[in-house]
Amino acid sequence: MEVTAKMRFTGISARKARLVVNEVRGMHALEAVDMLRHMPQRAAGVLAGTITSALHNASENLGLDQDEMYIKAVYADQAPMRRWRRFAGRGRFKPWRRRSSHITVVLDEVDAADDDWLEEAI
Going by DSSP bridges, is the β-strand pair 82-87/3-10 parallel, antiparallel, or unpaired? Predict the structure, then answer.
C-alpha cells in the first residue's frame, strides 16, 4: 500500500533539492533517513523530515510496519518564485529571484518479490 507525504514551499531551490533527492531514490526508508541525517546539505534535513512524516503516516493511519517501507518515488518540483530586490548605486536595483520547491515522497511496502529487486537496485 502506498503512503504519500508532501513538503510544500520549502525555501530551497528545486535544482539543489534534486541533488539530494536522487541519492535516496529506491532505498529502504529508515536507511535513507539515517543517511540524510549525516549529509551537510540543507535539503537533506527537509527531505529526512518528509520521509519521517511519511513513515509516521504509514504506521499511525494504516498500521504498516516502518521497517518494511521503501522509497518508491521521490521528486522535487519547482514552486512559485518570490521576486526580491537589492538596491544598487545610481538609482538602480538588482532583482533577486528566491526560488522554492515542493518535495513529494511516496513509500511502499517491501514484498518478497520486491525485496529481491530492491537489493539488486542498491
Answer: unpaired
Cell 548605486 -> residue? 89
H helices of 6-111, in order, are 14-24, 29-37, 42-61
CA–CA distance, 80 with 98 (Å, rounded to integer)? 9
Please provide residue 39's backbone torsions phi and psi, each rounded to the nearest 5 degrees.
-90, 145
Tens-digit pLDDT profile for the chain (122 aa)? 899 999 999 999 999 999 999 999 999 999 999 999 999 999 999 999 999 999 999 999 999 999 999 999 999 999 999 999 999 999 999 999 999 999 999 999 988 655 565 666 55
Contacts of 2 (CB under 8 A, 6+ apart): 72, 106, 107, 108
